[in-house]
Amino acid sequence: xxxxxAAPDAVSSWVPGMTEAANSSATRPVTGLTGLDARLLASLVxxxxxxxxxxxxxxxxxxxVLLDQAERLPxxxxxxxxxxxxxxxxxxxxxxxPAGSALALSMLARNPDHGRWPGSLSLxxxxxxxxxxxxxxxPDVALKWPNDVWVQGRKLGGILVETFAGGVVAGVGINCQxxxxxxxxxxxxxxxxxxxxxxxxxxxxxxxLADAWTExxxxxxxxxxxxxxxxxxxxxxxxxxxxxxxxxxxxQVEGRACGVDGRGCLLVDVQGETKAFASAEVSVRxx
Length: 287
Fold this sequence. Notes:
There is one protein chain. The protein is α+β, with helices and mostly antiparallel strands and 287 residues long. It has 2 domains: 11-233, Bira Bifunctional Protein, Domain 2 (BirA Bifunctional Protein, domain 2, 2-Layer Sandwich); 242-284, SH3 type barrels (Roll), CATH 2.30.30.100. It is built from 7 helices and 13 strands. The chain has an 8-stranded mixed β-sheet with strand order 1-2-3-4-8-7-6-5, sandwiched between helices. A 5-stranded antiparallel β-sheet has the order 12-11-10-9-13, with no helix packed on it. 42% of the residues are buried. Mean pLDDT is 84; it is low at 1-33.
């Protein structure tokens, strides 16, 4: 398989056929990243997975690399980096990833044979991320509908799923060690793995997330949201909380969150009537 074309504003290290790699150790902590070791990462995942991974020292956006080349890349292609200069989040927000502060990875997945990926896919991928973070020791991991990963009520990361004609590009960003200047510029409570005492090589984190997402896509393609619904409920950060739901520029409702439905829509009890929201901004109200 040929390597991906080099992305603009990126210095890349290719896993397959690589002749040089930085010295590293599988016990290197996830804090203070200095660029992912592509050779070590390749040793931690299956060869078929490693063959489709592109590791970038610096990139504008891991999402943009795959979307720009989506029509000619093979299914299950990956881009990973610990330094994004123009990372993006949901609804056009900026995802700040200064060098060594966070891990960003994106995966291209072509549509399954039976049709397009539904919106609930992003929730299923969130479940997979939450399970990895919990397994590595972060306390009180939760998922805030639709795409935020929380630890102890603060944002640790987020999931973004963007569509193209033939499928989706799904990305996740996980805060590893945020500089103080970045923390002050974020408009919500945040945390990182270092603060939570999680010690693991960044390559191990990347491998664990890649394995988890590969499995999640396979299961979702066969069984859909049903296979993840109960698992999501176990991480639901909003269930039972008083919430404010912003559905448009001047449209908002208030009520009590009561889980998600069989399509992945947020359910909110509004004065005794249960309403479902497929897309909205949600915040927890002070009570």
